[in-house]
Amino acid sequence: MAAVIQSKLVWAVYLLHLLLLISIHGSTSDSISSEGFCAVNSGSDCGLPSPYTKILIKGGTVVNAHRKEVADVYIEDGVILSVRPNIRIPDENIKIIDATRKYVMPGGIDPHTHLDMEFMGTATIDDFFTGHAAALAGGTTMNIDFVIPINGNLTAGFEAYKHKASKAAMDYGFHVAITKWDEDVSKDMEVMVRDHGINSFKFFMAYKGALMVNDDLLLEGLKKCKSLGALTMVHAENGDAVVEGQNRMIDLGITGPEGHALSRPPVLEAEATARAIRLAAFVNTPLYVVHVMSIDAMEEIAKAKKAGQRVVGEPVVSGLVLDDSWLWHPDFTTASKYVMSPPIRELGHGQALQAALSTGTLQLVGTDHCTFNSTQKAFGLHDFRKIPNGVNGLEERMHVLWDAMVETGKINIMDYVRITSTECARIFNIYPKKGAILEGSDADIIILNPNASFEVSATSHHSRSDTNVYEGRIGKGKVEVTISRGRVVWENDVLNVMPGSGKYIKMPPFSYLFDGIDKSDAAYLSSLRAPVKRANAAS
Ligand code: URP
Ligand code: ZN
Ligand code: ZN
């Protein structure tokens, strides 16, 4: 009897929150204070109250990056308590989910998004609420976004993003971009790592006159990152040559979206990738190359890895499954939605990037979700240089990758978990709290039905954008359930998310990529056989 009353009470509280949720959902959420920004393990109650704090997933195939097994998964208060066959819990307040003939996997982690980012005279259309809603509906339970400094100032940028993220609906972390160099920036990088859980900094080698850095700055950044145990990330394109390429297209009278691809060919991506790799080798620090879009850039990474260098290559879904023919589409709205940098390449590059992913040359998949609607894209109707750069993907990544790579037999299911979740958690040093279905891991879990299918459309997606670069794509494999920190947020095609329920995940420095760097530094120093002591040196 007591249990029934308790259960009714829980439902009443839940309905009340649903009402609140509906009212918040309809608003722009701009009024939400930064109190929703909570540090992980802070003990504060940041989550959405749910009727079930206990969930038992029965009979599914539990897939981790290292093994798969038929087992039940028991979750309590947002944490996985047990993973083993035939779990029985005699408690009627448990939600039981039947996952028979389905895969139970860690929720996706997207290492590369731009939510609520001011860029090219406008701001991305998805904020931390709509972006997270889209992500959860597609099986992604954490993203790592990029803090853009304000006038080069990291602290001001971080505070601004903290506020933007107060409407987060799932867990998230931050990388911080470096756009200028002075003593303050150098000191602020220390503060970011020590106090704010930042363990990666990004350097844009393109976007001249806006975010771009030169080699001098990149070198300073590489040295500083190394000293802090933070990962150096690069957007690798030769920004000076891109401007030259853009001018060349305009001089030729090519002003449409195809001019975007023509002005920044693979050679400019390969050159910058090679340059960043060599500078990282010179400093002896790990390097992470974001959005690897071409065979040319991928081969530079392959060469470096073969030589033993620690270089991580991140392809993005658009680069893996789309090709540049869309940029020649006669309809501007259609063509412009595919404008991103580096550009989506000719047919053939995507297949080669998929192959590199399957063999480990490239390690994890992001989206670079940076969405602008058709009105924003039309800023560049008469000049492709003014089309805001970026495509969607946060909601589609898990589905499109499953269909393109698992369904076709290019990778196995454990590799799928590795490239969509586990590898990201390892690189950014939050494994096995994230990226695994293990006892003690956060209960960020998806249930995928390999026999169901998905279909992408701007009319049904959860992004605010009115377009979708995967429009009309149909494929096998559907995320039927998403659990975020122990709450069922996506089930029966219904999304139940609340702004402010996501938690900030602090990421500690010195990931596995830094193991042994001190030893190779010592080996380097002893190899110098210098300074040579000469008898006449002083004369
Ligand atoms: O086109 C892109 N990639 N937009 C987002 C900014 C960036 O370069 O990552
Ligand atoms: Zn970029
Ligand atoms: Zn990006």
UniProtKB/TrEMBL annotation:
MF (Gene Ontology): dihydropyrimidinase activity; metal ion binding
Entry comment on modification after translation: Carbamylation allows a single lysine to coordinate two divalent metal cations.
SUPFAM superfamilies, A to Z: Composite domain of metallo-dependent hydrolases, Metallo-dependent hydrolases
Catalytic reaction annotation: 5,6-dihydrouracil + H2O = 3-(carbamoylamino)propanoate + H(+)
Broad enzyme group: hydrolase
Keyword Zinc attached: yes
Key word tRNA processing present: no
Residues recorded as bearing N6-carboxylysine in the entry: K202
Enzyme Commission code(s) on record: 3.5.2.2
Keywords of this entry: Hydrolase, Metal-binding, Signal, Zinc
Listed GO CC annotations: cytosol
GO-annotated biological processes: pyrimidine nucleobase catabolic process
Cofactor(s) required for function per UniProt: Zn(2+)
Signal peptide: 1-29
Limits of the Amidohydrolase-related domain: 103-489
Domain of life the protein comes from: Eukaryota
Membership in a protein family: Belongs to the metallo-dependent hydrolases superfamily. Hydantoinase/dihydropyrimidinase family.
Subunit structure: Homotetramer.
Protein name, as recorded: dihydropyrimidinase
Lineage: Eukaryota, Viridiplantae, Streptophyta, Embryophyta, Tracheophyta
